Amino acid sequence: MPKLPSSKLFHLVKSLSGSEKRYFKMYISGKEKDNSKYVQLFDAIDEMEEFDDGALKKNIYGDEPIESRKYPGLKAYLYNLILKSLVSYDEKSSVDYKLKNMLLGVRSLFKRSQFAGCKDILKKAKKLAAEYEDFSALLELLDWEKKIAYTQTDIAFLDREMGRIEEEENGYLQQLRDISEYRNIFFRILVNIRKDVSRNKKQLSLLKGLVQNPLMADEEKANSFIAKILFHRIKSIYYFSSSQFHEFYEINKKLLALIEGNMRMLKEDVSEYISALSNHIVSCGILGKYGEVNETLRKLISVKPLTNDDAVKIHRQYYSNKFRLCIATGEFEAGRQELKRHLTYLSKFDARPFQKSDFYFQYFCIYFGSEEFEKALESLNEWLDMSKSIERKDLQSFARVLNMIVHYELGNTLLLESLFRSTSRHLGKGDKIIKLEKKIIGFILQAGKPISKKEQILLFKELKKDVEKIAALPSYNIFRMFDLMSWIDSKITGKPFSKVVKEKYRKNNTN
């Protein structure tokens, strides 16, 4: 039996929901004794908080000598046994599995020349596949219609039905091609904006070219539910990327209405619904519709996950948007409490999906607004220490600017000069936005020197003029992550940063 890494088995067991674990125990009932080593290994992994291969082996075998292949074989067997139970578990609820079983049933009956039974199953399967837009299954069902007629030498059927079958086949193939093209457009845009969020003219031109695909000319081109979902998602990501925020809001409202109007599909897959809710929250937040933000957050957290991945996505999107709301409104203390609950969750589950730049920046902003500068610095360093990828290159530069701001707040004046040199090297030549960031770090170096309070305020007023010139540019949306202007105002007025953010929020949302 092939060798299986223990960590692979550990992660599989830990990914199971409570109902899946119970089903596994029922599935093996009668197959294995309750005290079998397979069951012992499963229970030992289930109880283990952190992976420890040595402790697992000790738990199962004690001090008895183990044959070289015995333990690896045990792990491989248990892994395959769990996999078989999951397939059986999914068969009971998934339309996809039901269709696959129906097709297997047709195959079995066909082998035994039970053609009437085949046709009965084909009729039911075709209705189910059409209802859930499984175009691949529909093509396979049509192929079976031809195969059965050919085997029965039913020339009359072929003469009568071939026109209809060819038309349906062409239609389903076109649906699949369209869906594939919609997905390709979406992923091209996604990769492009994740690599760089500077939104320069060249990038915006590229994004515009992608949405000028003939399939995007009119919503009517998307003639299936799946295609319509993708059409709206492409429009949504494009409007956001090109800073067309009113359009971003409206398209997300349409997308939510589309999904919520077809709740049957949500029984199969809620991932698109989770994404649509999250995007709607973002669009409402940008436009200051905070009532809708809270309403949609409640809707998001009440979504029933169908998979472990769904549960992670709901948590990730809920807290990401909840943090964003607290940061935008200046409710940093509430944000700190939410952050505490979020980190408690991560201590029990896989934290890797949350080790992203956006999360670390949100942690930073909440700690910064709560004046917990040491923790803010810790969050920032965790991001800066991460292995670099193509994702969010702009944040790597801005993080270093924030690094200097935190050290300024901590009064680490002796460090500012060396930080200034290293940050300047990282920023390099850059464009006009990078030049602004260079100006900010140069200013912080100057402000950290022993000068009078009056001189510091004058420096901050000069910095404010420079920042105002570029903060309004739609292409420079980094200020939506950290309210640099409010920080500058807090230094000019002497008010706490959190108070300035709250006052700005209340002034802009008097209604």
Tally the helices. Answer: 25
**Beginning-to-end CA distance, first to last residue:** 68 Å
Structural class: mainly alpha
| Proportion of helical residues | over 70%
Give average pLDDT, whole number. 85
Number of strands: 0
Shape: globular
In what range is the share of β-strand residues? under 5%
Low-confidence stretches: none
Radius of gyration based on Cα positions: 29 Å
Biggest β-sheet, characterized?
none
> Could you state the oligomeric state of the chains shown?
single chain
Order of helices and strands: HHHHHHHHHHHHHHHHHHHHHHHHH
Structural summary, described in words:
This protein has 511 residues and is an all-alpha fold. The protein contains 25 helices and no strands. It has helices spanning 6-15, 18-28, 37-47, 53-61, 70-91, 95-111, 115-131, 135-151, 155-195, 201-210, 225-241, 245-260, 263-266, 271-286, 290-301, 308-329, 332-348, 357-369, 373-385, 393-410, 413-427, 432-447, 453-471, 484-493, 497-508.
